[in-house]
Amino acid sequence: MKQILSLSKQLGPLLQSARKSAGLSQTALAQCLGISQSRVSAMELDPGSISVEQLLALLAALHHEVLVQPKQGAAVDSNGDETAAPPEW
Q1: pTM
Q2: Which residues in 3-42 are b (16+ Cβ under 10 Å) and which e?
Q3: R_g (Cα) of the chain, nearest Å
Q4: What is the pLDDT of residues 21-62, one digit of tens each?
Q5: Which of 30, 42, 57, 67 is the most buried (most CB within 10 A)?
Q6: Where in the sequence is the domain holding 26, given as residue range(s)?
């Protein structure tokens, strides 16, 4: 199933759902990744704390991947870059 993420807080439930769909407990996933169960819990509860490297390792363990593409209907320039202003941090 494809899931579009627009906010980091949407990642936590997605990670939890992917873990459960894979039939893994937090403890089992932690063992696969070589981290503690409490760290897996923290990643699901506060996905903003995850580095890109950690996210990719976590997704790989869950047999998921990241796909980055322009938003549907977004205007793009001749380089294929979105022309809309980026969100403010």
Answers
A1: 0.75
A2: eeeeeeeebbebbbebbeeeebebeebbebbebeeebbee
A3: 15
A4: 999 999 999 999 999 999 999 999 999 999 999 999 999 999
A5: 30
A6: 14-61
